[in-house]
Amino acid sequence: MSVRISYFCMPTTTVNDVDLYYERTGDGQPIVFLHGVMMGSRFFLEQRTLPEEYESITLDFRGHGRSAKSETGHTLPTYAADLEAFLDDQELEHVVLVGWSMGALVGWEYVDRFGTDRLDGFVVVDQQPADLQQEGYEHGVFDLAELIDLMELAQTDHHALAHAFIDGMIHGDPEPDHERLMFDEIARVPPAIKSAILFDQSVRDYRDVLDSVDVPTLICVGEDDALVDPAGVVSIADSTPHATIERFSDSSHCPFLEEPDAFTDALLRFADGCQ
């Protein structure tokens, strides 16, 4: 009779002079989950425990969740450098990287800066390569004036900003427990950090990085999305060498919360094919 030994730890580790909070459960192939802007790793509560052949790893970016609220470094290049330092600190290789929303942008920044040697696969969850409307790009989700309004709201009423994001992230009415979780995670991020990273991630453009993602890529699309353009998410496949698409008809921006069983099944099928 074999006995599986697993562990559940909730430590912080110091990388690039900042304490980052993370959780690791299981002892199989590592799947690392990256959360969205102003969000946190608790959004992946349904994926914390995976079958025994996988290890679930969640990480709070600096300034988010239960990581240190550093005054500086709130740019996607710094977050990507933190991710590389974290993977090195934890001695992680053959990683399936799951980037949701801003987490996908961090993933593209990571590939651009550090390549794909550590990665066996990349999962993009509901994010197009650029958010800002611009000439020649039909998938932008807001213009500069709307971004300025969001930045102002972050400084004048960051709780109202949280509710504005929650209203667009869930298909239909969110479950009370999920709504409380989302608000709690967003409210943890200080307004100054909200403004800094919201602006930085909103003006980045990773269209020229897509063809550098030379590992298997799964693109997860919430088809009832109120925050991003589903067509813009799907269009990633045209420029990503080894991409497949998984659609979630009953999800907006958070298929891992809205359709957790379907999302996890799709993720594990993909991860199994990456081994």
Automatic annotation (TrEMBL):
Protein name: Pimeloyl-ACP methyl ester carboxylesterase
SUPFAM superfamilies on file: alpha/beta-Hydrolases
One GO MF term attached to the UniProt entry: catalytic activity
InterPro entries per UniProt: AB_hydrolase_1 (IPR000073), AB_hydrolase_fold (IPR029058), Carboxylesterase_BioH (IPR050228), Epox_hydrolase-like (IPR000639)
Species the sequence originates in: Halorubrum vacuolatum (Natronobacterium vacuolatum)
Record-annotated AB hydrolase-1 domain positions: 31-266
